[in-house]
Automatic annotation (TrEMBL):
This is LexA family transcriptional regulator. Keywords: DNA-binding, Transcription, Transcription regulation. The keyword DNA-binding applies. CDD domains: HTH_XRE, S24_LexA-like. Residues 1-20 are annotated as: Disordered. InterPro entries: Cro/C1-type_HTH, Lambda_DNA-bd_dom_sf, LexA-like, LexA/Signal_pep-like_sf, Peptidase_S24_S26A/B/C. Residues 9-64 form the HTH cro/C1-type domain. Residues 1-13 have a biased composition (Basic and acidic residues). One of its GO terms (molecular function) is DNA binding.
Amino acid sequence: MQKSMGERLKAAREAANYPSATKAAEALGIGLSTYRAHENGQNEFGPEIADRYAKKFSTTAGYLLTGEGPRKVERPGPRMVVTSFDPDEQYNEGFAEGVEDLSYSREHWQPKIEGATPEVDVKLGAGSGVVGEVINLPVGAGNVAGHKIVAEWLIPSGYLRNEAKASPNHTIIMEVIGDSMQPTYMPGDRVIVDLSQNQMATDTVYAISDGYSEPQIKRLQRVPFTQPSQVKIISDNPALETFTVELARLTIIGRICGHIARK
């Protein structure tokens, strides 16, 4: 007897090593109730959603929709995986050469190894930043532009979610350059950036831009009783000046949720 659409979706999810509907919905970035309705057979889904599920679960949309076609699609394995990362070693350069076909966009990026967090070719300036190479990621019949991935970091999703208070699906790694955030953040350090936290919810450290220049890492402090709302942009280096701007003029790229320091 042929399996139902929901049963095929569940089989594909389990084969892709997602132990629960909750984990699958989180990885897909959709509501748990929506996903469960599809897997339980309460609601059917069309080709567009099937294609999204198929990419995440390494299967085919045809299998999910009708049971026809291969159930399992083998993805190329990682050319190199960074588990212990030393920016001073040539290993980083070798990794970059090995993933020259990878770029990051929040909606479409797929890691070479399950659970990895990408480091993108963007350097947060503790002064002025650097935007590196942008390449095209093929998606369907078109392309999506994204920042080149220079490394993948294996950071447990439980740590990101529970300790760093970050969304694992929207988290990237960036390198720090410059000295304006010394001694807290040193040149060559990496920071964990949650792109989903792109509004100023609390006084802390963010990746920011004025919308025109390269991104920077700065400490933000809201100025109370100001209208329009103003914010202080603070460098941890005491030799540098603090300045104030209207919050609406500031582009917040994401909140700094973690720090990987060089010793």
